[in-house]
Design the sequence.
């Protein structure tokens, strides 16, 4: 009889773990409280699969940046004063990880994970023929300000040393790679092209993978909330949901930001806090000129990703607690950024209703690395805390969790990514 694995959460992390466990011969069930797959943080993210983004958010100097954004709703990085008490302990750890040595250590670990993950993702999508408005044409990071460009140049050298191909580019070179930037060329002072980055729609990917999971006999239980666990000694024997009890030989917690709350039921103190972000997506099928390559305006912290006949503008990081409400000021900021980068799209951005406006909560850890591996009860495995980079990293962490559960040595060092590091 195959062993029974239950996965909590049907986002990027849960579904990919389900796929690898199924291939390893487990009998897999995924329990998801929403009515379908990837309806939370994996729904309308930036679509970027970017080892080049290995630098964590808590760079040296983050404290000053956060303080200056206090209660400024227009800032890309926004700290809400009333939310400070709920971030206090986590925030101190976040700041402790912003020393130069830890910052560079995280770049190295994120980069190693992202490379591994990208290989795993491509192998899976190629072999299954999954379609998700994806492309492998690299990404561009541009600068309007020489000081910012000079500031990030040494960091990019470090990222290059960790194995990411980084091509420093003049503005003319950037425009040769993405001609749609030519209207704003006079205002740019260059940037970087990362040829190995890629992009795609995470929600479409999850839906395509879920279809394969169902065909393969994996049970996907939607509209069911995990409320607790049954344990015997040091093992979990079952999950208690709002619909009943499910027996399990092993459990994978892949519940994004909610993992913290569920973990408490097993006396786990997962250091995960929500950091809210927004996206707005337009249909550009009628545009005379469509951007083809994802572009990031680093100073504005805004990403612009072509996804088939759509383009998505994404950004902002709000340390404001959990709230599913969409703040229209944030969406206006994204629209403005879209117009200042692609003025040719003005008729669409000004006139049309977006295909979607969205907010999601990044499940952030204090060192901006995910939490992967066994923890707490001996048959509980974590695949969570993917923060700002989960589309880039969740394939690799899912492979690693399946390896661990199936008795293989994972490629990733457990010491660097498990709860043990905290
Ligand atoms: C604005 C924004 C832009 C981003 N852009 C990028 C990007 O460009 N590139 C990149 O690499 N990453 C990006 N990310 C990060 C990435 O989207 C996340 O790291 C990733 O989606 C996390 O996936 P997950 O499966 O861990 O969590 P989720 O997708 O949130 O999945 C967790 C699931 O668990 C379910 N769940 C929770 N509690 C329970 C319960 N009690 N019972 C049953 N089910 C439960 C939830 O309903 C949810 O479906 C972005 C994030 C945001 C917010």
Sequence:
């Amino acid at each position: 009889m195959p062993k029974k694995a239950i996965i909590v959460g049907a986002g990027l992390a849960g579904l990919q773990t389900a796929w690898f466990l199924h291939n390893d011969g487990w009998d897999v069930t995924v329990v998801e409280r929403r009515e379908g797959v990837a309806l939370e943080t994996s729904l309308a993210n930036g679509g970027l699969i970017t080892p080049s983004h290995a630098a964590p958010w808590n760079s040296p100097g983050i404290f000053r940046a956060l303080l200056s954004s206090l209660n400024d709703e227009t800032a890309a990085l926004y700290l809400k004063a009333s939310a400070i008490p709920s971030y206090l302990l986590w925030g101190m750890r976040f700041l402790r990880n912003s020393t130069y040595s830890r910052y560079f250590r995280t770049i190295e670990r994120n980069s190693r994970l992202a490379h591994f993950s990208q290989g795993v993702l491509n192998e899976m999508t190629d072999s299954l023929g999954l379609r998700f408005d994806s492309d492998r044409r690299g990404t561009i990071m541009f600068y309007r300000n020489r000081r910012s460009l000079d500031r990030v140049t040494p960091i990019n050298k470090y990222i290059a040393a960790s194995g990411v191909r980084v091509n420093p580019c003049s503005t003319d070179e950037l425009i040769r790679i993405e001609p749609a930037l030519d209207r704003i060329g006079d205002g740019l002072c260059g940037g970087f092209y990362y040829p190995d980055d890629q992009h795609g729609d995470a929600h479409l990917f999850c839906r395509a993978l879920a279809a394969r999971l169902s065909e393969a006999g994996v049970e996907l239980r939607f509209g069911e909330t995990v409320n607790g666990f049954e344990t015997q000694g040091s093992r979990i024997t079952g999950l208690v949901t709002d619909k009943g009890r499910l027996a399990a030989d092993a459990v994978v917690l892949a519940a994004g930001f909610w993992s913290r709350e569920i973990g408490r039921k097993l006396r786990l103190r997962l250091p995960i806090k929500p950091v809210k972000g927004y996206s707005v997506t337009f249909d550009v099928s009628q545009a005379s000129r469509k951007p083809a390559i994802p572009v990031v305006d680093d100073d504005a912290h805004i990403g612009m990703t072509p996804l088939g006949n759509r383009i998505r503008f994404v950004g902002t990081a709000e340390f404001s607690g959990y709230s599913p409400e969409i703040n229209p000021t944030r969406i206006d900021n994204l629209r403005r950024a879209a117009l200042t980068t692609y003025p040719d799209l003005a008729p669409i951005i000004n006139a049309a209703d977006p295909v979607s406006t969205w907010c999601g909560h990044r499940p952030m850890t204090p060192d901006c690395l995910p939490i992967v591996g066994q923890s707490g009860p001996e048959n509980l495995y974590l695949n969570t805390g993917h923060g700002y980079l989960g589309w880039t990293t969740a394939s690799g962490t899912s492979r690693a969790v399946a390896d661990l559960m199936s008795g293989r040595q994972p490629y990733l060092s457990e010491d660097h990514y498990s709860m043990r590091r905290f």
Remarks:
- The chain is about 35% helix and 25% strand.
